[in-house]
UniProtKB/TrEMBL annotation:
Keywords: ATP-binding, Nucleotide-binding, Phosphoprotein, Transcription, Transcription regulation. The modification 4-aspartylphosphate is found at D54. SMART domains: AAA, REC. It comes from Sorangium cellulosum. Residues 4-119 form the Response regulatory domain. This is Fis family transcriptional regulator. One of its GO terms (molecular function) is sequence-specific DNA binding. It comes from the Bacteria. The lineage of its organism: Bacteria, Pseudomonadati, Myxococcota, Polyangia, Polyangiales. InterPro entries: AAA+_ATPase, AAA_lid_NorR, CheY-like_superfamily, Homeodomain-like_sf, HTH_Fis, P-loop_NTPase, Sig_transdc_resp-reg_receiver, Sigma_54_int. GO terms for biological process: phosphorelay signal transduction system; regulation of DNA-templated transcription.
Length: 460
């Protein structure tokens, strides 16, 4: 555990025995036989991570110690030692602020486990407080929330390429915040005074997408009662985001390629080309390498939009950013609803960290909005979280057991592991190949050999 514990017991022999065992387990233990002196030490030294106290002591009992410790260090977990069968006394200690209790005769393994849980609880509370301060404080990227190494790399890349005029391709799973990155690029560029225009290529019918992008002349089609300039021209002086570009119809792709190359567009039904001055940012959650191989996306267009590449990590790769995002959404939804919800309880934070968030940032936002609406307290509790978050248990791939009859050939171990990585990568073969240290062609050959199992892992 590698943390500091303060032990209070008026039995010197008990103190010595507990301290010796805990030190052997990596806990720096300080002992005191006087509760009053121990509490004075607690006021002077803020480095203790857990307090362990007996209940029945001369001068001051453990209940009083719990109450006083809660006043001195409200964040410090207290574990009490009580006589066997004294459940009523243990309940009193919990009500007085104790985190947990163990009974005599002391089972040292049970005590060590209780202390480990208490120390982890203390660390998590400290992390929650730190994240509250981080959300409240000024940041270089107020909307692109994250302090993990993966997100710092993204933020650093945005700073470096913000003023470049080259086309940017933003990739990442659905819900990771690709439009937020596009807006961050715009706000840090020389074009920030111009418009930010976005279009979801998957949401516009194929018959209208060309008109939306390039505009149309009056009378170009039945409902074209007036000429329209199109989004490329509307974004003049600013940034145009082509979201979900992987869904762009093949028939429109050569026209987009020409527009990007010539910096001019021809409206539908028009005779003259119109110049535009906008920075183009494209985004997709699709594997465009695979789309190019399958001839669903033009290779020349792919290279034209992929001059600068920003790859957004999924939430499951961002560590405690989950709590930072949750705290930001919590404050936003609490303000909108007028509820005095200030943070997450440590058990709720623990559940958020354990969950894999397949829906990424969007799923966290939905989860916290629900929790703020349901909670009756100032902190979100485990009961306020969706059932799938509360009950989630990390899954592991079982490749062998202790029974020799359960052992499998090495090729089967490889198959299970590769399919598990592909599943974790959301079916993205390029990302899976990078994780596995394979090239895409090698991975593709292996998956073809294992069909239809690989098809099931990809979702068909």
């Amino acid at each position: 555990m590698g943390r500091r514990a303060l032990i209070i017991d008026d039995d010197e022999a008990m103190c010595a025995w507990l301290a010796a065992d805990l030190r052997a387990r990596g806990v720096e233990a300080t002992t005191q036989t006087s509760p009053a002196e121990a509490l004075a030490l607690l006021e002077e030294d803020e480095r203790f991570d857990v307090l362990l106290t007996d209940l029945n002591m001369r001068g001051m009992d453990g209940i009083a110690v719990c109450r006083r410790a809660a006043e001195i260090r409200p964040d410090l977990p207290v574990v009490v030692i009580t006589a066997f069968g004294s459940i009523e006394t243990a309940v009193q200690a919990i009500r007085a602020g104790a985190y947990d209790y163990v009974t005599k005769p002391v089972d040292i393994e049970a005590l060590a486990l209780a202390l480990e849980r208490a120390i982890a609880h203390h660390a998590l509370k400290a992390e929650v407080r730190r994240l509250r301060r981080a959300v409240a404080g000024p940041g270089a990227f107020p909307d692109l929330i994250g302090r993990s190494a993966a997100m710092r790399a993204v933020q650093d890349l945005i700073e470096r390429i913000a003023d470049a005029e080259a086309t940017v391709l933003i990739t990442g799973e659905s819900g990771t915040g690709k439009e937020v990155v596009a807006r961050a690029l715009h706000e840090r560029s020389r074009r920030k005074g111009g418009p930010f225009v976005a279009i979801n290529c998957a949401a516009v019918p194929e018959s209208l997408i060309e008109s939306e992008l390039f505009g149309h002349a009056r009378g170009a089609f039945t409902d074209a009662r007036a000429a329209r300039s199109g989004l490329f021209v509307e974004a003049n002086g600013g940034t145009l985001l082509l979201d979900e570009i992987g869904e762009l119809p093949l028939a429109v792709q050569p026209k987009l390629l020409r527009a990007l190359q010539e910096r001019r567009v021809r409206p539908v039904g028009g005779n003259a080309e119109v110049p535009f001055d906008a920075r183009i940012v494209a985004a997709t959650n699709r594997d465009l390498d695979e789309a190019v191989e399958e001839r669903r996306f033009r290779e020349d267009l792919y290279y034209r939009i992929n001059v600068l590449h920003v790859e957004l990590p999924p939430v499951r790769a961002r560590g405690s950013d989950v709590l930072l995002l949750a705290q930001r959404f919590l404050e936003d939804f609490a303000a909108r609803s007028g509820k005095e919800v200030v943070g997450l309880s440590p058990p709720a934070a623990e559940r958020l960290l354990a969950y894999s968030w397949p829906g990424n940032v969007r799923e966290i936002q939905n989860c916290i909005e629900r929790a703020v609406a349901l909670t009756r307290y100032q902190e979100i509790t485990v009961d306020d979280l969706p059932a799938k978050v509360r009950e989630h248990r990390p899954s592991h791939v079982l490749v062998a057991g202790d029974d020799p009859s359960e052992l499998v050939p090495l090729e089967e171990v490889e198959r299970r592991y590769i399919l598990r990585v592909l599943e974790a990568a959301g079916g993205n073969k390029t990302l899976a190949a990078r994780i596995l240290g394979l090239d895409r062609k090698t991975l593709h050959r292996k998956l073809e050999r294992w069909e239809p199992a690989a098809g099931a892992a990809k979702g068909g």
